[in-house]
Design brief:
- The protein is built from 16 helices and twelve strands.
- The radius of gyration is 21 Å and the shape is globular.
- It is α/β, with parallel strands linked by helices and 456 residues long.
- The protein folds into three domains: 118 residues, no CATH class; 156 residues, Rossmann fold, CATH 3.40.50; 150 residues, Glucose-6-phosphate isomerase like protein, domain 1 (Rossmann fold, 3-Layer(aba) Sandwich), CATH 3.40.50.
């Protein structure tokens, strides 16, 4: 009997909503990772409390100390509503950290594990400057060291997130909605839009993307409107970390302009109202879970993310930092031309200050055009280490990595109670990831820059 695609989608949706672990390979972690399915309804019920609490925070700036996928959802919502009040600080780059004015700031400390190296370093930095628990709130899982620290430190509030939600699936939980409420987002309406998602269509999207990847069209090119460009950051980490493992994966390429190629599967995002992002978040979470089913991978684990973390720890344990040669950035395109084969993609990894802003995407576009339209992605380190880095090590061996590091280090910024400063920390993270890529046989080269305009 032939099963239609519609009937298959209905069956898969029923199995997903029932929490059937048989959708994914044996030994998958889904029994502890499906809380995101029911969280929009739970958070809709808590929306009034969140809104009331947020209204009582009168700081002029909200500084989110976070890392990885759980921090990118708030950045999408902040950008979509045009809020200057929220600052998402998800880097250890010293110039960016030092640029944050802590005067009249309120700090959200966001970490699922409550032990995230970068978040704890940032907390140490700001606590030395603002040692007042009333100006802090924590978002974490129950029973974590951060939860205990927040209680001991007299934090304004501790939001204990359901433990069965992974970071990249957490945007509609406290991790995304607490900062959203502080930006003035109507979180009740956002959850309503999520609950109104056409779940069957989302399953069909996941089936189509997974099958396209199996057929060689694995560059999942997500075209987003300019106004919602930040959504590309969120969907990129969700797709990459969820599907990029065991040599398989959909390779997300977020862009604000149409890109074409024989290895592309293109999805155009249609969003008119920022609150519609609630539906888009939920749609893509469902789709990516189903893409994992199609590819035969567990979309909820991240087996290769720990590799770079371990290498970073090794570097920090044996200071001073070893010297690693860096090439002239004027030769990036020439090097890529000598490396790229059909079906490859380029990952530009910038361990640089956030002040470069849109210049990083201009570099991405320039390199794409200079190598004949091949897929090029770009992201900041160490942010991507906790998300898309999974794809670079665990996904298809088609990545060609360009690591950009500063030629001239920023002024030293100590990490309180640690034997190193932020310069050393981010340099160790870059070195750790560089070694991880080499260990996996990936093609990677380091280039030292002071200005992204040097990259040619």
């Amino acid at each position: 009997m032939t099963v239609t695609r519609g009937a298959e989608a209905v069956e898969l949706l029923a199995r997903l909503t029932a929490g059937d672990p048989g959708l994914w390979p044996a030994g998958n972690v889904s029994p502890d990772r499906l809380g995101w399915l029911g969280v929009p309804e739970r958070m809709r019920a808590e929306a009034a409390d969140l809104t009331s609490w947020a209204a009582g925070i009168d700081a002029s700036k909200i500084v989110l100390l976070g890392m990885g996928g759980s921090s990118l959802g708030p950045e999408v919502l902040r950008s979509a509503v045009g809020s200057d009040r929220l600052v998402v600080l998800d880097t250890t780059e010293p110039e960016t950290v030092a640029s944050i004015d802590s005067t009249d700031a309120f700090f959200l400390v966001s970490s699922k594990s409550g032990t995230t190296l970068e978040v704890m370093a940032l907390l140490a930095h700001f606590w030395e400057r603002v040692p007042d628990g009333r100006r802090y709130a924590a978002i974490t899982d129950p029973g974590t060291p951060l939860a205990d620290m927040a209680a001991d430190g007299g934090f304004n509030r501790v939001f204990l997130n359901p433990g069965d939600i992974g970071g990249r699936y957490s945007v509609l939980s406290y991790f995304g909605l607490v900062p959203a409420a502080l930006c003035g987002v109507d979180v009740a309406d956002l959850c309503e839009r999520a609950l109104a998602t056409d779940a069957k269509a989302a399953v069909e999207l996941g089936l189509a993307a997974g099958r396209a990847a199996q057929q060689g069209r694995d560059k999942l090119t997500v075209v987003v409107p300019d106004r919602f460009a930040a959504f590309g950051l969120w969907v990129e980490q969700l797709v990459a970390e969820s599907t990029g493992k065991h040599g398989k994966g959909c390779i997300p390429v977020p862009t604000t302009e149409m890109e074409a190629g024989d290895d592309r599967y293109v999805v155009a995002l249609e969003v008119g109202d920022p609150l519609d992002l609630g539906g888009e978040f939920y749609r893509w979470e469902i789709a990516v879970a189903i893409a994992g089913h199609t590819l035969g991978v567990d979309p909820f684990d991240e087996p290769d993310v720990a590799v770079a973390k371990a290498n970073t720890a090794k570097v920090l344990a044996s200071l001073p930092l070893p010297h690693v040669p860096s090439a002239d950035p004027a030769g990036v395109t020439e090097w890529l031309a000598g490396q790229l084969q059909p079906g490859d993609y380029v990952s530009v990894q910038a361990y640089l200050p956030y002040r470069h802003g849109d210049a990083l995407d201009r570099v991405r576009q320039s390199l794409r055009d200079g190598i004949g339209g091949a897929a090029v992605t770009a992201g900041y380190g160490p942010r991507y280490l906790h998300s898309t880095g999974q794809l670079h090590k665990g996904g298809p061996p088609t990545v060609v990595a360009v690591q950009l590091v500063p030629r001239t280090p920023a002024p030293s910024l100590p990490v309180p109670s640690h034997p190193y400063d932020f310069n050393t920390l981010i340099a160790a993270q870059a070195l750790g990831d560089y070694q991880s890529l080499l260990d996996r046989g990936r093609r990677v080269r380091r280039f030292a820059v002071d200005d992204l305009n040097e990259v040619r």
